[in-house]
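#help-structures

NK: newbie question. if I give both the sequence and a SMILES, will the prediction place the ligand too? trying with zinc ion
OV: yes, paste both and it writes out the complex. here, I ran yours:
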Amino acid sequence: MRRLPISVAALCFAMSALAAEPFDDKFRQLEEVLPTPNTIRNASGAPGHAYWQQRADYTIRARLDEANRSISATETVTYYNNSPDSLPYLWIQLDQNIFQPGSDARTTSTVASREAWAKARGEEEGMKFEGMRSILESRTFDGGFKIGAVKTSSGQPLTYTINKTMMRIDLPQPMKPGSRFTFNIDFSYNINEAKVMGGRTGYEKFDEDKNDLFEIAHWFPRMAAYYDVYGWQHKQFLGAGEFTLEFGDYDVQLTVPSDHIVASTGELQNPGAVLTAIQRERLERARKSNKPVVIVTQREAEAAEKRRATDTKTWHFKAKNVRDFAFATSRKFIWDAQGYKKGGTDTMAMSYYPKEGNPLWEKYSTQAIIHTIEQYNKYSLDYPYPAAISVNGPVGGMEYPMISFNGPRPTKDKKTGELTYSKRTKYGLIGVIIHEVGHNYYPMIINSDERQWTWMDEGLNTFVQYMAQQAWEENYPQSRGEPRAIVDYMRSRNQVPIMTNSESLLQFGNNAYSKPAAALNVLRETVLGRDLFDFAFREYAQRWKFKRPTPADFFRTMEDASGTDLDWFWRGWFYTTEPVDVSVDGITEYGISSKNPETEKALQRSRRAEEPMSVTDQRNKGMPRRVDAQPELKDFYNEHDDFTVTNKDRNKYNETMESLEDWEKALLAQGKHLYLVDFTNVGGLVTPLVLEVELKGGKKYIERVPAEVWRMSSKKITKLIVTDEPMVGLTQDPYWETADIDVSNNAWPRKVTPSRLELFKTKRGEGDMMKDFNTPLKTKTEQDKAGAPEKAEE
Ligand SMILES: [Zn+2]
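OV: that's the protein plus ligand as structure tokens.
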């Protein structure tokens, strides 16, 4: 008789058992969710033949009023309408208006619940001095743009309407497709104190030498994005969704005190007018050097700190094909630089920092910039800009084209002046520089819509940052990127899917940075493998550099270029909050019967003997029995048990063996072991299985099973594992590569989870007011000796 192969039989059974439940198809195609491909964005995820994007060129003349901490400027914008649409008005972003006392960012912000406030104990949970100061200052600070004249290039006034952080300019006549329009805006604003009010821009004041350091960004009215998917990007700036802008060329002149050093997007056009001969000579040397060359030394910067220039200098920069422009200026700046030229990249890596940043900054900053470019070039595209800058100032970490602001500094002991830094500060600095310089790729060049999707720049960038940090040193302390690092978050409540607008994200860092980075690691290491993944990921960068991709373009490119349907992956990781949790539920072993009654019946007998003796039998042991007392009662059945081989059995075996073909006999002789393993998908997110099989002889090996194993039943499946010798252990995901949130159900047999219990002594005698009252009062000197509390780490 022929039997169905075991796997087919088991499968039919599993399907019929589940037929009553509604079928949750985790592999259904994403087309029901994604926008329909068209001639602008095609079905393979590439820009279509009718792709278009707008362009805006800027000429800006700006002046820093150092004493009043304000900027005043005039800008000329030339806007190119490359769309097929007629535009009756233009929308401009006025992101500085977030600092107005009545901004939506302030009025719509909420705080933790009353219960959370009432429960707050200690520094971590409670309100800090800084938090209270920030709230009070933001209610009174005279922030936001003061818009002066808005005129056409021929001087005709234009009507405009300000809507919070947006401004609409009504055009004399609609802009036709293919036309350009030039207009001017005069504006000024007061600069926020970044350490007090927060923000991605602002000044920092140094009490010791009474100088300021300015990091200046979203400082001029900028063209809002207009594109095929959303029309005008009309989301107000609330603080989380960053800046979505058009590419263009910039010509910017910055007038600052003559003793300032300016770091800026773009290339300096007039070094002869603003740099000394020796600085220019050092810069020339830096271009060909293989380590950083100091352009302004610490000693020179410290000398500059003590003077105050009364005159000004104008620094002239030009930048081509950038989507924004930022700068930093101070007389406190130390400046070092090193050229980097390889492939299509020819750039100057440059760092600007006050003495308070040393000794960390002179050692790591410029090196970290070059490391970033080297690594990101491999995975994305050749860095195309002439400069890559890292500035130390009040902003903790923020990116702009060619320039980034990075916060970490050593700690200075108030009394001894000793400079030290923690491991966290060191790797925090290297990490933040890699991250912010890395943003040049995502989203400064691969220009995704940040105000819509934070993950498209932060997630992709954090993923490449993870790989770059791996290449910095072995065991680099990684907080994001490893699948295991996302497990606590995946277990947490109040999650939203990655595909959620930037302003509505809960658990922002985990949602938009860590989870996409971990997901891409799973995709690279576990789902696709490095070759397929790296090719597709680079293809995405190549297709979309200097263009504006949407999520669908990323998803489709990764599938198209890897030749793999990943709809299940995007659906699970990006559109749901389900976690991975696979449980190994049960295992049944099948040996293949030899059909030989001598072997098989002996085996059955030994199985029976292995069964535990019943309690009754145990207790009746030694009991006198009738058949023993009267042996004449015994017969054939007392001599032969149920497993006795009969001649009938032997004849049947011989007949069977004669009827078998040679290959069938050989198969019987192989003696394979079959294991039926039940897996339950407890978490819901479908995942590849990574099975570590341990054999009796000690050998271990891995079987990798693609996620499609769940395609007919996403909740429960049974797999057949065939081994040469008995299997003694099975572990699902032995390397923790799938972000499984509960590994305690991953092993068969189950493993004990080890931990240590800390016992605490009961505190007695606290709150004895009588004793506290009698404690002698300390003098001022005694208090000083005890030491002031340490300044908190950045
Ligand atoms: Zn970032």
